[in-house]
Amino acid sequence: MCGIVGYVGEKKAQDYLISGLKRLEYRGYDSAGIVTLDDEGKATLLRAKGKIANLEEKLARAKRDDHIGIGHTRWATHGEPSETNAHPHQAGSIYLVHNGIIENYKELKAQLKEFEFQSETDSEVLAALINSFYQNGQYPLVNAVVQALKLVKGTYGIAVVSEIEPKEMVVARSGSPLVIGVGHDETLIASDASALIGHTKRAIYLNDGEVAVIGKNSIEIKTLNAEPVSAKVEEIETNLAAIQKGGYDHFLLKEIMEQPESLIETLRGRVNLKEGMVHLGGPGLSEAELRKIKHLIIVGCGTAYHAGLLAGYYIEQFSPELTIETVIASEYRYRSAYIPENSVALIVSQSGETADTLACLREIKKQGVKTIGIVNAIGSTIAREVDGGTYVHVGPEISVASTKAFTSQVVAMVMFGLTIAQAKGVKGAMLRPYVEEIAHLPEEIRTVLDKVPDQVRKIAEKHAEYDHAIYLGRDTAYPTAMEGALKLKEVSYVDANAYAFGELKHGPLALIDDRFFEVVLLPKGALYEKAVSNIQEVLARGGHVVVVTNADRFDLPVEDVVKIESSAELFAPLLMNLVSQLLAYYITVCKGFNVDQPRNLAKSVTVE
Ligand code: G6P
Predict the structure, then answer these.
(1) What 3 state SS string does 217-279 have?
(2) How far is the CA of 523 from the centre of ligand 1 (A)?
């Protein structure tokens, strides 16, 4: 979703602004813009609809040596994607870029009668409001920004520059992330630390309700109530290689293929095979607190929600006294759900910035419930607001479709479940198989990824013309099927849905015809035979079935069988999910769509 960058220093601001915006491209956007100011305050404003390449074409005719500037990639919320609606927005002598949503923009706009609005955006209203307090530089820019923000309802991460004060920029946040990169004779800002990589490793994460005045060698942070804030400089751990394609055609493929390594990072120092135990330090719950837990609420959106569903299936297998409820954040935040005593909430988010998930976290905290983050992005808002947490440590995930984060989120949550079970005294013999399989999962993933891609590519080529797909599974293979269907629809635009196999007869069976193909995830185990009967029902109706299984023998006349050869049994669905991920990837490549940035979607959904 929208991205912000800003620069003040000795180098050419335009260079960082463009390269920074490119780094943020993965978040999803539909227009982009930058403004820079020369030493006298003369502005060069460039905006373009569509890709950053369009902005670069304009830039080729408007290169400047200016040392200060701000930039933005916009993902339309108020007003269509267009040059006029793109940021930066100008109001008098100020320019603003904004992430988030100004909820009361209509009322504010009604009060700004003098101003001639150019765009349909809520962000331009904020620019005009700041300008009305600025009075052409009669007051310091920061004062005007603070006065305006005090009237705003909604969420924002903003950066503002003024033609009258061309040595400094003002930034502020409430609900939308902003990171300040501390360099030598330069200060950079971004809505996501990945834009700063290669420029500086030192970052300050602004908190909600804070505003900062930034110069090339100065950063002054205050709250909106003018209380000074002493900034904590943190180290950015990510390196450049982690945000590059590393020889792959697409980030999606790279991220699928790096799962053996990313899962190793999730497990590092947390699994003790000898004892058959896991050790998680991050949640920060004492043994007594863990023993008391009776109910787990798992909250997430999209893939994180599916990870929560799947983890819930596992945790209940070895935690007889624990009830588990996995919920969609955008629903749960408005429900009047009763949270029983001794509950703990797991807040699952790759980005750590998803607006609905964050809102749930805050609601749940208000009720005095302990919150534990299962987060990837270090220093993100959710990571900072939860009571404790377990980072999944998969490194940056650039492709909009989430893959490696899913695998590690499931495993991290299962490890949290194991931590509770250990504290509750569940017998080691019950838990050991889970611990052992988890410890060996990276190798098992590697084996599958070494073996199946070619076969999956061929299956994708055969199925690339279908517009509809059904994913089917039972038990742990059901949430896994949901994730497979989501992957396919988000990148290939195939209308893909998942059903619990047992539900087939209650409706979806009516769909089966030549327009559909079916992907069946078929793990060995207690429900194997039942699922095989279900496949026969589909075949009898002329279904086009692809089976993914770890069974030793499977001889129904389906179109394709992808064999998962692995000693992992409990977690075989996670291995089958690799096939779903690859299938989505290759079908999309066959269709010729933008694999890493599907239309209409954003990586980090920071608005409701
Ligand atoms: C977006 C992404 C999905 C992701 C979901 C939740 O929709 O495109 O891939 O699963 O947000 O994101 P989070 O960062 O909270 O895990």
Answers:
(1) CEEEEEECCCCECCCCCEECCCCHHHHCCCCCCCHHHHHHHCHHHHHHHHHCCCEECCCCEEC
(2) 27
